[in-house]
Design a protein that fits this description.
It contains 21 helices and no strands. By secondary structure, the protein is mainly alpha-helical. The chain has four domains: about 110 residues, no CATH class; about 120 residues, no CATH class; about 90 residues, no CATH class; about 80 residues, Serine Threonine Protein Phosphatase 5, Tetratricopeptide repeat, CATH 1.25.40. Helix 2 packs across helix 7 and helix 19 runs antiparallel to helix 20. The longest helix is centred in the N-terminal third of the chain and has 27 residues. It is elongated and about 75 Å long. The N and C termini lie far apart (about 65 Å). About 45% of the residues are buried.
Length: about 450
């Protein structure tokens, strides 16, 4: 397809010196990774069509890869991509007679609302609305897209799928692998979500103050789900999917930047940072998991820990704590301790008690039981775990069986421990987990 918009150079930033194709690709990827969500959000806001926004964004990337090697990377590459994508969208609408009336309305809106060229700051955000955190104006369009993709009218699995696809920038096959479904199934979920957004006319906006408390937890849960899959993969050859965990942190940073007054955005970001800080020590040379008490704490990311600790203070200040803030406080106590023995287990148990009142779940109960075992001994922890034996949601949760196996081993009940490890082996999703469990059974 001819690149009428980019080749003419009208309205585009001046091009620099020519670069190699490889350098151009690196520049495109850097801009696209950082600002993809806002680029899509700006286009959806303008044209009201998520499919169209994705298509013209891809075409703008292709145009950049053709033009930047010869013309140089623009001084404002994000604005270049946005300008090119907008022109492609207008061209498509012009060619589609079914959109003729709609285009007339869009043109009228654009004439009333189009910002002056001087407002273009060199990033995608310079061409759209500004962050409410910085200007007091309406919130950044990325935030509007967050709430559109996580609207309660969408099924829970569809919300996560479309958020990963549109905001984290994962391909459909990557999203499918993250959630253990065929690519075709995931593609159907994404198509279904887009169709629902379009047909139900889900508003492209941040909820009002009366709606935000109800809607924000869903947004945070989606980001947390992305991180959880990256922290402990459901299946595959690796225990961790670091790229996915880092994408979740990037999304959490955007939320934190755009909703600075919401303490749970600080809590979520703190939790992700404090847990991800241990990434390099969580696996051995062969990729097998390394237990917390056996990790080399010198390999933990101290800068990330310090950032997380600062955010914990913000999350716990100014009112009752939320569940992410409490979980972040627990992670901070682990990260601050020199070793397992000096960890403040009494405080961790107390925090789990608070967390269970805020967000009761069998997973929280398992974690609390392990903390009690560290405070009061393996017998006390095992009693709590055995009390959860009838919980159906733990039947396919390997950490429950692993925790029982570890406590039974510490109590000298080797036969029962082996049975628990065999149960965990049947449930384990990744090869490193299975290898570690086979080794425990051998011992």
């Amino acid at each position: 397809m001819a690149d009428e918009g980019a080749s003419a150079g009208e309205g585009l930033p001046p091009a620099g010196e020519g670069v190699s194709a490889g350098e151009a690709r690196v520049a495109v990827e850097a801009v696209f990774r950082e600002e993809r969500g806002l680029l899509l959000a700006s286009l959806v806001r303008r044209f009201g069509d998520l499919d169209l926004a994705e298509e013209v964004t891809s075409e703008a990337i292709e145009a950049a890869l053709r033009h930047w090697p010869a013309e140089g990377v623009p001084a404002r590459p994000g604005a270049w991509l946005l300008t090119t994508a907008r022109r492609r969208a207008v061209d498509r609408l012009r060619r589609d007679q079914a959109y003729a009336a709609r285009l007339a309305v869009l043109r009228a809106d654009a004439e009333r609302a189009e910002p002056a060229p001087a407002a273009d700051t060199g990033s995608v955000s310079g061409a759209g609305s500004t962050s409410g955190a910085e200007s007091g104006e309406p919130a950044d369009e990325r935030l509007q897209l967050f709430f559109t993709c996580t609207h309660p009218a969408l099924a829970a699995e569809d919300r996560t799928a479309i958020t990963l696809r549109c905001l984290a920038g994962l391909t459909t096959p990557e999203v499918a692998r993250a959630f253990l479904v065929p690519t075709a199934t995931m593609a159907q979920r994404i198509v279904r979500a887009k169709k629902k957004i379009r047909e139900a006319r889900i508003p492209f906006r941040v909820p009002g103050p009366d709606e935000l408390p109800e809607r924000l937890p869903g947004v945070l849960q989606v980001v947390y789900s992305v991180f959880t899959e990256g922290y402990a993969a459901s299946s595959g050859p690796r225990l961790q999917r670091l790229g996915l965990a880092e994408e979740a942190i990037r999304l959490a940073r955007i939320l934190r930047r755009l909703l600075p007054a919401e303490r749970e955005t600080a809590g979520l970001l703190a939790l992700l940072l404090l847990v991800h800080a241990r990434r390099d020590a969580r696996t051995g040379p062969d990729g097998e998991p390394v237990l917390l008490e056996e990790q080399d704490r010198g390999r933990w990311d101290r800068a990330m820990i310090e950032e997380g600790r600062g955010l914990v203070v913000r999350a716990l200040t100014g009112g009752p704590a939320g569940p992410y803030g409490v979980q972040a406080a627990i992670a901070a106590l682990h990260d601050e301790a020199a070793d397992v023995e000096s960890t403040d287990w009494a405080q961790i148990v107390a925090l789990y008690d608070v967390l269970f009142t805020l967000a009761p779940s069998p997973v929280v109960a398992v974690n609390r039981a392990v903390a009690v075992a560290m405070r009061d001994g393996p017998g006390a922890g095992l009693a709590l775990l055995d009390a959860l034996a009838g919980e159906p949601r733990l039947r396919a949760y390997p950490p429950y069986a692993v925790a029982r196996g570890d406590l039974l081993t510490r109590l000298g009940r080797a036969g029962e421990a082996a049975e628990a490890y065999r149960q965990a082996l049947e449930q384990a999703g990744t090869e490193p987990e299975r290898a570690a469990l086979r080794r425990k059974l051998g011992e």
